[in-house]
Amino acid sequence: MTTTVATLRASLGDVDIYLLDQVLRGRISERDVVLDAGCGHGRNAAFLWRIGCRVLAADADPDAVSAVRALAGSIAPGADADDIRQDAVEALSFDAGAASVVVSSAVLHFAADDEQFLAMLRGMWRVLRPGGIFFARLATTIGLAHVGATPLGGRRYRLGDGTTRFLADEPWLMQLTADLGGQLADPLKTTIVQGQRCMTTWVARKPRGGEGGVR
Questions:
Q1: pLDDT tens track for 81-134
Q2: Distance separating alpha carbons of residues 55 and 60, to the nearest angstrom
Q3: What string of H, E and C letters represents the secondary structure of 20-77?
Q4: CA–CA separation, 95 and 93 (whole Å)
Q5: Tens digits of per-residue pLDDT, 20-52?
Q6: Which of 39, 75, 78, 31 is nearest to 57 (CA)?
Q7: What values do phi and psi take at 186, rounded to 5?
Q8: Angle between helices 17-24 and 43-50 (to 10 degrees)
Q9: Alpha helices for 76-181 (secondary structure H)
Q10: Could you tell me the pTM of the whole model?
């Protein structure tokens, strides 16, 4: 059977291409329960439903939650309504270990400060079951010299695209991974978006044994 461009577009939608890479490499499959933390209007959730995953979705924005519930009705009509919740990422109400994969796509860099960033990270890590995969895409300072940014104090910067973001750096991400007891599933990989921002892919596996804790 020939796969056409139209068929690919219909099946992939607007999925984060770096998340798709994890699927193609066998780290995410239809057997997984995936938490889309900060799901927005469901561009990744839609793809995950289409490949057969059970999707847990959370967003603090009620309009986003309504949009994702409507999306579930059209793509995954058998989905449990309680799987889609109006939760802030730092206050997720899902049970500990509820998800085998946690996805955080373009969310962590909206933190106001270190405290909120760490609270979001702790919340997602709690929901991730032992042995599970944590996938995050976030703006960072890695490669920032090629973009240009104005420091605003702490880890906040005004970027070349005019936005203000909270930017983690490589040593901190490595320290956080160690503090959590996790292991990088891939080296940190960063895409430099010309004159705008640097987006890092952070993929870690949660240990099957004891828990770590971010400071």
A1: 999 999 999 999 999 999 999 999 999 999 999 999 999 999 999 999 999 999
A2: 17
A3: HHHHHCCCCCCCCEEEEECCCCCHHHHHHHHCCCEEEEECCCHHHHHHHHHHHHHHCC
A4: 6
A5: 999 999 999 999 999 999 999 999 999 999 999
A6: 39
A7: -140, 155
A8: 20
A9: 114-127, 170-179
A10: 0.92
